[in-house]
Each structure stands twice: as C-alpha cells, then as structure tokens.
Amino acid sequence: MNSTNSAGSTRKPSVIVAGAGIGGIATALALSRLGLSVTVLEQSATLGEIGAGLQLAPNAFAALDALGVGEAVRARAVFTERLVMMDAVDCSEVGAFEVGEPFRQRFGNPYAVIHRADIHTAILEHVRGNPAIGLVTSCQIDAIEQIASGVTVLARDGRRFQADYLVGCDGIKSVARELVVGDPVRVSGHVVYRAVVPTAEMPEELRWNAPVVWAGPNCHLVHYPLRSGDQYNLVVTFHSREQEVWDVRDGSKEEVLSYFGGIAELPRKLLHCPSSWRRWSTADRNPVDNWTQGRITLLGDAAHPTLQYLAQGACMALEDAVTLGEAVRHCDYDMEAAFALYQKSRIARTARVVLSAREMGRLYHAHGVERLVRNDLWKGRGQDGFYNALQWLYGWSADCCLATD
C-alpha cells in the first residue's frame, strides 16, 4: 500500500528489480508507468542480451503493446509466413500452419522472430532516461534481507540497496528464488547450440521465411531469419551423452556433428554454416504453487523457468510484467495483495507452459515407433484445428489477465 511520510503526504512504494534481462526491464517499465520508483540491479557490466534469436507469438505482442513498446519491437522484427515442422530423417513435412492474415485476425497479433538484443534494446529505449527508473550495472547480488519495513539487497562489492519491495527477475539461478523457494534446478540433459549466420552463408534451399523445426531422433534443428533477412538464427539441440551441469560456454563443431549422424543431408548442411557456436546446457524447474514471500515475488525464469520447445520463455516473462502491473493497479498499490493476485493469475498458466514444453521436446526428439506416431498427429488437420489448439496460449490479453473471480 502507499506509504505515508512525516509530513503526512503519501508516496507510492519503491521496488528493486533484480535482473535487467527482458523480464526485468519490462517489469521496471510496467511499474514505472504506475508511478512507482524502481531500481534495476544487473550483474553484468553492460545492459544487453546474450543469445541469438527468439520467437514472438501473438501473446507476446499483446504484452508489448500493453507496455507501450509494441511498435518499437515490430520495427525490428521479421514477420514470418508460417510455422513448419519437418522430419529430419526423411525430409517429409510433419505439420505446418499459416501465420498470415487469418492468423492475425484470430489472435489479434502477428507471429514474428527477432534478435534478442533488438527486443531488449526496444524496451530499454523506453527505460533509459525514465526518471522513475534507476539502472545499476556490475551488481552481483550476494544476499537479500527482508524485514517488516522493507527489503535490503547486499551486493558482492559491499553496496547496499534498499526498497519497500523486490521483484526477482534474476533468471534460473535466481538468488531471490533460493530465498523464497529453495528448490533445486532440474538439469534436462539437453544441450543447445546457438549461432547467427549471414544469409549468404545459409544453403539457398533453406532460406525460408518461417521458423522451421527439423525433428530428429534425440535431436532437432531450428532456423529462421533475423534483421530484415540479413541473418539466420540457427539452433541445434541434442540429448547429451555426458552428465551435464547448467552452464553456458563456447561449443565445438565436432561435438555437434557427433550427435546428428542419423539425419538427412539437407538439414545436415545447417551444421556446417556457423563459424562459431555458443553451448547451453539447459535446465528448468518443477512448477511450484507459490513464488512469493512477504515483500518479495519472482518473475520470468526466476519464477517458472522453462525449456525452449514452445518458444515461450520471453513471452511468459512479458506477460508476467504486464500482469504484475495490472495487479498493482487493481489492488490500489497494496503490494502484498498485488503480489498474491499476480501469482494467482500466473501459476497455472506458466506451469502449463513448463510441462507442455517438456512434452513438446519429447515430440521433437521422437524416434522409432514414437516418430511414426508423431508424424501422424497432425495429418489432415486444417488451419482452424491448429488455431483452436493454440487458443489457450496465443489468445492471452492484458484486458483479462487477472484472476479476480
């Protein structure tokens, strides 16, 4: 709720946002638009995003529009024609659906792809210079302390930051989550290699204006255009033979090639395109029914980290940020009531995404008879059938994001 100072006037709560990724800066923007004072703490020395491309479904654009940055993101995005799954063993089409005008009419927004740095920059442009938002870099959080009157963050270099409330947007290795939930990370055993390739170095027959999944036995490949078609995002995933721990590091072409011997020559060409790779050992966490403790709540990957198979990680963080802002507005700045409403509105939906992503990974990586079953799943399904199946995911709207019943 609003605080009262010694002069008897009221002020709106102050909030620390831990983490300046897409979810963190979206949260800062959402709360600042309500007049809250926000301090964003980022462990990196610079503000930006690592990685390569990401996919933006209609629900992401609905959230971006609610934040006032939809047009800035659209200006940097590539709008695709369809989504495609191919069988990497025999090069047959498993399933595809159009994302043109009928899709936009159904869901109210397009489907697009974008470089992570570009969407981050588009939001950050609205955050920088905002007098209600302070950005602090090179801030490694060591501990978070909560007392009846507020929250204190202790940085590794000795700095202390205080606010009335804290939103943990600090990713899958969240310090805030360790305090609130304290559960282990679930290392999937799936390794992701990501690269960005100049279009001139992509095989001409694979320069499709679509996110394409080549599904193979215990592996898959994804490619789609970025930055006005000047580049292609390339992602390959496989089940590791090693005992994996969650990390990010440089990868090797030799390791990639060793996992893709069972796929056809056409998708295999993709493995020779990058000059360098980054390697992610992926992880998620089991869904929980509470991610709030007093003056602290979690958001994005800190609250519900998911595997990449639904391409919804960033989309869910954007939805979270908008929903949290709407909850604060609905609860008239009673922050603890807003935190409770926010998580009530988000837990079942985000848990469904986490669990559905795991199952989608199984479909992507099917082999033997399971592969044949997967290839039969979408036969004869019309476009409306695909749209109906995705209504729960893509039909999200800021206008009805709160569970107020």
From TrEMBL:
<dbReference type="InterPro" id="IPR050493">
    <property type="entry name" value="FAD-dep_Monooxygenase_BioMet"/>
</dbReference>
<dbReference type="Pfam" id="PF01494">
    <property type="entry name" value="FAD_binding_3"/>
</dbReference>
<keyword id="KW-0503">Monooxygenase</keyword>
<keyword id="KW-0274">FAD</keyword>
<dbReference type="InterPro" id="IPR036188">
    <property type="entry name" value="FAD/NAD-bd_sf"/>
</dbReference>
<dbReference type="InterPro" id="IPR002938">
    <property type="entry name" value="FAD-bd"/>
</dbReference>
<keyword id="KW-0560">Oxidoreductase</keyword>
<dbReference type="GO" id="GO:0018669">
    <property type="term" value="F:3-hydroxybenzoate 6-monooxygenase activity"/>
</dbReference>
<protein>
    <submittedName>
        <fullName>3-hydroxybenzoate 6-monooxygenase</fullName>
        <ecNumber>1.14.13.24</ecNumber>
    </submittedName>
</protein>
<keyword id="KW-0285">Flavoprotein</keyword>
<feature type="domain" description="FAD-binding">
    <location>
        <begin position="14"/>
        <end position="327"/>
    </location>
</feature>
